[in-house]
Amino acid sequence: MITKNARFGNTENVTVCEMGTGDVHMLGSLKDDDNEVSLAFRTVPDPQPINVKTKTSIKSFDEMKPELVFIFSKVESIDSLIGQLEDCKAQLI
User: Could you tell me which of 13, 47, 57, 69 has the fewest CB atoms within 10 Å of its CB?
Assistant: First the structure.
């Protein structure tokens, strides 16, 4: 679930993206004219299977109505995110 303006610990006005229940759909990634790649997310009303890649032919995220977008302009930023996700994964297993 994506919750905007949430409280996280003692910090207020945080956007929280809770993964693992199947209700956050990763819409996919698109490269724009500025050579940036965006990865968009949206909450769906009915939980979907986790780890199923949806094949879409989207040309714009406008039609998908994303709630949360990660924008990457450098490969190193993606590598950094992957590293942090691997740390999270190690803590879960």
Answer: 57
Compute the CA torsion angle 69, 82, 58, 2 (nearest 10 deg). Answer: -40
Parse the chain into domains and list their residue ranges: 2-92
Q: What is the pLDDT of residues 67-88, one digit of tens each?
A: 999 999 999 999 999 999 999 9
Kindly list the distances between the CA atom of residue 29 and the CA atoms of 3, 40, 88, in Å, as whole numbers in the listed order: 21, 7, 22
Q: pTM of whole model > 0.90? A: no
Tell me how far apart the alpha carbons of residues 54 and 43 are, in angstroms, rounded to a whole number: 15
